[in-house]
Amino acid sequence: MTHYARPEPTGDPADDAATGRPPTFTAWLRSRSDDELAALLRARPDLARPVPTDMGALAHRATSRNAVLRALERLDRFTLQVLESVVALGDDRMSEPVGTLPVDLARALGMTPARGTGRDPLDDALRTLASLALVWPDRGRLRPVQILRDLLPHPARLGPPARVPLAALPHRTVERLAADLVPHSTADSPVEAVATALSDPDRIRGLIGEVDASAHRLLDGLAWGPPNGTVSDARREITLATASSPVETLIARGLLVPVGDDTLTLPREVGLYLRSDVLFRDVSTAPPPFEGRARDPEAVERAAAGQAFVVLRAIEELLEQWSREPAAVLRNGGLGVRDLRRAARTMETDDATAALYLETARAAGLLGTDDRLSGEWLPTREFDLWRESPAERRWLRLAHAWAGSDRVASLAGSRDSGGRVRNVLGPGLVRPAAPQVRRDVLIELGEAEPGTSPDPASLIARLDWRHPRRRSPVHTELVETALTEAAALGLTGAGALAEHTRPLLVDDEESAAEILAAGLPRPLDHVLVQGDLTAVAPGPLVNGLARELALTADVESTGGATVYRFTEDSIRRALDAGRGTTDIIGMLERHSRTPLPQALRYLVSDVGRKHGRLRAGSASSYLRCDEPSLLAELVGDRRAADLELVALAPTVVVSGLNRAALMERLDRLGYHPVAESGDGAMSLSRPEVRRAEPDTDVESSAAPTSAGIRAAVRALRAGDEAATVARVPVLLPEDGTAGARVNALVEVLERAAADERRVWIGYTDTDGRQVGRIVAPERIDGGFLIAYDTTRDAVQRFALHRVTGLAELAAGDDDA
């Protein structure tokens, strides 16, 4: 027989008036709508990593020290001032907590509440603080989360409420102070008596009126903060009768209170009186205006698009070169200075910009290291796919990689705390704040009118207003670096935000690609072949033509146009890769807008006629030629004496060297043999193209998706229901065999499945955590419960031996 116990309390004060329990932060979170919870997780994504099990876990995480510190960094100066005002006025340790809001807050901030339909900055700030779960309503007033009293010990640069430092003083000292200030007080304690006196503005006015001008100046110096001052022997015994100096007269009247052996503080009540109940000298509800130059938006877009094209061409050329001649990996995993300088020459830029391009290519997954012992930097397989994409898509991948990377290329060349030099692509370049700073900079530039190029100082001032708690020398350096890198990568032009970058701020890649495609040079399918054995590409070439020209000719110069030069070596490179003379001539005739000069035709024909006349094989090696005179000439050549050549027939000669050494030596002598396979066919191949795997250590910070946030809210609601729902525990047999307990468990679950009812189970998951689940049982199968789990929103398998508890849902809660 299965027994049922009385329903357990849920611990969910959904209706505070009905339950009589005081409101809690957890209950307030539980009352938020799904959209409001989604907004909280979107604004504070760290709260959903991993998804909390229930509202209690969410409340605990949202009020933890590190989580609240991260949230404070998101606040602008005005919103932070509002939050400090709520902390300062709503501190429960004060005699009179704050009353009606926002009237009291507006008065303390020196503001007048907005009338009519206009937006009130104070209301907006309070909504922001509530959406971030930093404040919550409690019986008609706003209440800050508890940890803020520790994180903001001096809100608005005010001292602590008088009760706090008074309670830390020796009882005898507070008794003497109370006897001097309120000799006939009926308060319960001397601390309460003095604190009550200091909460009366008239009494503070009278006490201040009793001190001299020097003491007045001391108070004025502490009024606007910081509220602490230093003096020797701050805890000395002082009374109204013995006070002789300005400091002592203030201590004797409770206008300054010792908080250490050599430290005094101005109580919050006194500070508010001296400020005439205004918390801040300067309250600005908007950032300072932009200062800078206005430029033509079209010129800005042209400059930025041109730079984007430069970036694409530079990275592609370097990685193409590194696929044939890779750079070495240093022992610390970075790139050497010499290789960096060679890369800069290849990309035709300076070392700092080359370092940025390399770090961006690595962040985009286009560059990595091989698995060889020596280690080399190589393009990855992703590079082959990337270079086949349209130019605007290639740039978007680089831009996203840069924005999400926490590596700062400008740190290369500096020294770490141990005195070691930081190398490009090596360790020590990580700055966790870099992605956020880059996004902040781009968003702020987007606030300016199109074409506006703000002064760096103006931009930094606005960013300081947007996020005052991030302000530091390191933050300023990151902002300046972000501006430089954004210009080098083509996100800005002439100091202003490019039009193709604006859509990226709202994750609209399609619009960004469309705008950028219109500004990029269109790929050409033709070149201009000239009589001096060069070909001029007046712009970027389509991929196929660019690869064929890179194989057939050498790049002589780049810039607005690329100049290719045809040489014997370049033509032979194409022939070695399997191209025939007719293929080369035909390709040039199809793509040249000018007639092919006779000199180029002769060059291709001459190299082609010589190519493959000699064929090298392994015999230890041999040479075969259909022209006996050529072999006779080679055997008689004195320079070839070291080749140990022996004629076997008029058309065959063998050598004592292996084939590779023989071919290398003959190349130097100008004969240029071609390798031959075992069946006598020429063995032609392109140069080895090697690839590395993308670097899995390079990660980009990504915001959670809307679908992920909705799923997190559903899981949170389901987990909270499992934790708080009213339930009637099923008393399973504790005595007897384990089989009896399992049989009783199976009996209840099968009955619930037949009645299509949900039940609550306690469960030990694979990580050893005790969790609660509300499930709709379907069947029992081989020691497992198959049930729909509302927390996971999916059908799950639960091992019966891991079920630690079972309960029926109370009436009215089982509405599956």
Characterization of the model:
The protein is α+β, with helices and mostly antiparallel strands and 816 residues long. The chain has 33 helices and 28 strands. The strands form 8 sheets. The protein has a 7-stranded antiparallel beta sheet. A hairpin with a 5-residue loop joins strand 24 (759-764) and strand 25. Helix 6 packs across helix 8.
What percent of residues are in strands?
A: 5-15%
How does the major sheet shape up?
7 strands, antiparallel
Shape: elongated
Counting DSSP H or I runs of 4 or more residues, the number of helices is: 33
Helix proportion range: 40-55%
Structural class label: alpha+beta
Radius of gyration: 39 Å
Distance between the termini: 26 Å
Strand order of the largest sheet: 1-23-28-24-25-26-27
Give me a quick take on this structure.
The chain is an alpha+beta fold and 816 residues long.
From the structure above, extract its key features.
single chain, alpha+beta, seven-stranded antiparallel β-sheet, five-stranded mixed β-sheet, 33 helices, 28 strands
